[in-house]
Amino acid sequence: MTDITYIRTHEGWLYLAAVLDLFSRQVVGWSMGARMDRELAIKALLMAVWRRQPKQEVLVHSDQGSQFSSYDWQDLLRTHNLKPSMSRRGNCHDNAVAESFFQLLKRERIKRQTYRNREDARRDVFNYIEMFYNPKRRHSFNNGLSPVEYEKQYFERLGSV
Protein backbone atom coordinates (compact mmCIF):
# COMPACT_ATOMS: atom_id res chain seq x y z
CA MET A 1 0.00 0.00 0.00
CA THR A 2 1.35 3.41 -0.90
CA ASP A 3 0.27 6.95 -0.13
CA ILE A 4 1.63 10.48 0.33
CA THR A 5 1.39 12.97 3.19
CA TYR A 6 2.87 16.38 3.93
CA ILE A 7 4.98 17.83 6.73
CA ARG A 8 5.17 21.54 7.52
CA THR A 9 8.56 23.25 7.84
CA HIS A 10 9.55 26.92 7.99
CA GLU A 11 11.09 26.41 4.54
CA GLY A 12 7.87 25.01 3.02
CA TRP A 13 6.17 21.64 2.70
CA LEU A 14 8.08 18.36 2.78
CA TYR A 15 6.15 15.52 1.14
CA LEU A 16 6.55 11.90 2.25
CA ALA A 17 5.59 8.96 0.07
CA ALA A 18 5.51 5.65 1.92
CA VAL A 19 5.05 2.04 0.84
CA LEU A 20 3.77 -0.24 3.61
CA ASP A 21 3.68 -4.02 3.68
CA LEU A 22 0.15 -4.93 4.75
CA PHE A 23 1.35 -8.23 6.25
CA SER A 24 3.55 -6.70 8.94
CA ARG A 25 2.80 -2.96 8.65
CA GLN A 26 6.50 -2.34 7.94
CA VAL A 27 7.42 0.75 5.91
CA VAL A 28 9.43 -0.95 3.16
CA GLY A 29 9.88 2.08 0.92
CA TRP A 30 9.76 5.82 1.39
CA SER A 31 10.83 9.01 -0.30
CA MET A 32 10.76 12.66 0.72
CA GLY A 33 10.88 15.80 -1.37
CA ALA A 34 9.74 19.37 -1.84
CA ARG A 35 7.28 18.39 -4.60
CA MET A 36 4.39 15.96 -4.55
CA ASP A 37 4.99 14.48 -7.97
CA ARG A 38 5.29 11.07 -9.59
CA GLU A 39 9.06 10.96 -8.92
CA LEU A 40 8.36 11.04 -5.19
CA ALA A 41 6.06 8.01 -5.46
CA ILE A 42 8.37 6.18 -7.88
CA LYS A 43 11.40 6.56 -5.59
CA ALA A 44 9.43 5.13 -2.65
CA LEU A 45 8.31 2.15 -4.73
CA LEU A 46 11.84 1.57 -6.06
CA MET A 47 13.13 1.41 -2.49
CA ALA A 48 10.43 -1.15 -1.64
CA VAL A 49 11.32 -3.27 -4.69
CA TRP A 50 15.04 -3.06 -3.87
CA ARG A 51 14.44 -4.09 -0.24
CA ARG A 52 11.97 -6.90 -0.91
CA GLN A 53 13.19 -8.27 -4.25
CA PRO A 54 9.76 -9.79 -5.03
CA LYS A 55 9.89 -13.10 -6.88
CA GLN A 56 6.13 -13.39 -7.45
CA GLU A 57 3.49 -10.90 -8.50
CA VAL A 58 2.78 -8.36 -5.74
CA LEU A 59 -0.32 -6.22 -5.39
CA VAL A 60 0.42 -2.49 -4.92
CA HIS A 61 -2.53 -0.48 -3.64
CA SER A 62 -2.83 3.31 -3.94
CA ASP A 63 -5.41 6.03 -4.24
CA GLN A 64 -6.27 7.61 -7.59
CA GLY A 65 -3.77 10.46 -7.30
CA SER A 66 -2.05 11.59 -10.46
CA GLN A 67 1.27 10.24 -9.12
CA PHE A 68 -0.17 6.71 -9.18
CA SER A 69 -1.89 6.92 -12.53
CA SER A 70 1.08 8.31 -14.48
CA TYR A 71 2.60 6.32 -17.34
CA ASP A 72 5.93 6.19 -15.49
CA TRP A 73 4.27 4.64 -12.41
CA GLN A 74 2.41 2.09 -14.55
CA ASP A 75 5.62 1.21 -16.44
CA LEU A 76 7.48 0.68 -13.16
CA LEU A 77 4.73 -1.64 -11.93
CA ARG A 78 4.86 -3.72 -15.12
CA THR A 79 8.66 -3.86 -15.13
CA HIS A 80 8.76 -5.34 -11.63
CA ASN A 81 5.75 -7.70 -11.92
CA LEU A 82 3.64 -5.53 -9.62
CA LYS A 83 -0.12 -5.44 -10.02
CA PRO A 84 -1.86 -2.08 -9.52
CA SER A 85 -4.88 -1.70 -7.26
CA MET A 86 -6.58 1.65 -6.77
CA SER A 87 -9.08 2.99 -4.28
CA ARG A 88 -12.53 3.80 -5.42
CA ARG A 89 -13.07 7.51 -5.78
CA GLY A 90 -13.89 9.11 -2.44
CA ASN A 91 -13.35 5.97 -0.35
CA CYS A 92 -10.89 6.89 2.39
CA HIS A 93 -11.14 3.45 4.05
CA ASP A 94 -9.20 1.79 1.23
CA ASN A 95 -5.99 3.49 2.43
CA ALA A 96 -6.65 3.06 6.14
CA VAL A 97 -3.32 1.37 6.89
CA ALA A 98 -1.27 4.11 5.23
CA GLU A 99 -3.38 6.81 6.86
CA SER A 100 -2.90 5.09 10.23
CA PHE A 101 0.88 5.15 9.75
CA PHE A 102 0.83 8.86 8.82
CA GLN A 103 -1.38 9.63 11.83
CA LEU A 104 1.08 7.82 14.16
CA LEU A 105 4.04 9.62 12.61
CA LYS A 106 2.39 12.99 13.06
CA ARG A 107 1.08 12.31 16.56
CA GLU A 108 4.21 10.63 17.94
CA ARG A 109 6.86 12.74 16.25
CA ILE A 110 5.96 15.61 13.95
CA LYS A 111 3.48 17.51 16.14
CA ARG A 112 6.16 17.67 18.82
CA GLN A 113 8.65 19.34 16.45
CA THR A 114 9.15 22.66 14.74
CA TYR A 115 11.36 22.07 11.74
CA ARG A 116 13.56 24.93 10.53
CA ASN A 117 13.89 23.42 7.09
CA ARG A 118 13.14 20.33 5.01
CA GLU A 119 16.48 18.72 5.84
CA ASP A 120 15.75 18.81 9.58
CA ALA A 121 12.35 17.24 8.95
CA ARG A 122 13.86 14.66 6.57
CA ARG A 123 16.39 13.54 9.21
CA ASP A 124 13.73 13.28 11.89
CA VAL A 125 11.28 11.32 9.71
CA PHE A 126 14.10 8.97 8.65
CA ASN A 127 14.93 8.41 12.32
CA TYR A 128 11.29 7.73 13.16
CA ILE A 129 10.79 5.19 10.36
CA GLU A 130 14.10 3.34 10.42
CA MET A 131 15.12 3.60 14.08
CA PHE A 132 11.73 3.46 15.83
CA TYR A 133 8.65 2.56 13.78
CA ASN A 134 9.95 -0.48 11.87
CA PRO A 135 12.19 -2.07 14.55
CA LYS A 136 10.51 -0.99 17.81
CA ARG A 137 6.96 0.39 17.45
CA ARG A 138 4.55 -2.24 18.74
CA HIS A 139 1.31 -2.91 16.89
CA SER A 140 -1.83 -4.58 18.15
CA PHE A 141 -2.25 -6.00 14.61
CA ASN A 142 1.10 -7.79 15.09
CA ASN A 143 0.22 -9.24 18.50
CA GLY A 144 2.18 -6.48 20.21
CA LEU A 145 5.31 -6.95 18.11
CA SER A 146 7.15 -4.43 15.95
CA PRO A 147 6.91 -4.94 12.18
CA VAL A 148 10.51 -6.20 12.00
CA GLU A 149 10.04 -8.61 14.91
CA TYR A 150 6.72 -9.84 13.53
CA GLU A 151 8.30 -10.74 10.20
CA LYS A 152 11.32 -12.29 11.90
CA GLN A 153 9.16 -14.57 14.04
CA TYR A 154 6.94 -15.47 11.08
CA PHE A 155 9.87 -16.57 8.94
CA GLU A 156 11.47 -18.47 11.83
CA ARG A 157 8.21 -20.42 12.31
CA LEU A 158 7.97 -20.97 8.57
CA GLY A 159 11.54 -22.31 8.48
CA SER A 160 10.88 -24.77 11.29
CA VAL A 161 7.94 -26.40 9.49
User: Given the C-alpha coordinates, what overall shape results?
Assistant: globular
- Taking the alpha carbons of the first and last residues, their distance comes to 29 Å
The CATH architecture name reads 2-Layer Sandwich
How many β-strand runs?
A: 5
CATH topology: Nucleotidyltransferase, domain 5
Residue fraction in strands = 15-25%
- Largest sheet data: 3 strands, antiparallel
Unreliable runs, pLDDT <50, ≥5 residues?
A: none
> Which CATH class is shown?
Alpha Beta
Radius of gyration: 16 Å
Number of domains: 1
Mean pLDDT: 93
Strand-pairing-aware structural class = alpha+beta
**CATH homologous superfamily annotation:** Ribonuclease H-like superfamily/Ribonuclease H
Q: Which strands sit side by side, in order, in the main sheet?
A: 1-2-3
Number of H/I helices: 6
How helix-rich are the residues, as a percent range? 40-55%
Order of helices and strands: EEEHEHHEHHH
Notable characteristics:
161 residues; alpha+beta; Nucleotidyltransferase, domain 5; three-stranded antiparallel β-sheet; two-stranded parallel sheet; 6 helices; 5 strands; globular
What does this entry look like structurally?
By secondary structure, the chain is α+β, with helices and mostly antiparallel strands. It has a single domain, classed as Nucleotidyltransferase, domain 5. Helices cover 43% and strands 21% of the residues. The protein is built from 6 helices and 5 strands; from the N terminus they run E-E-E-H-E-H-H-E-H-H-H. It has helices at 38-52, 66-69, 71-79, 96-108, 118-133, 147-159; strands at 2-9, 12-20, 27-33, 58-62, 82-86. The strands form 2 sheets. The chain has a 3-stranded antiparallel β-sheet with strand order 1-2-3. Strands 4-5 form a two-stranded parallel sheet. The two termini are 29 Å apart.
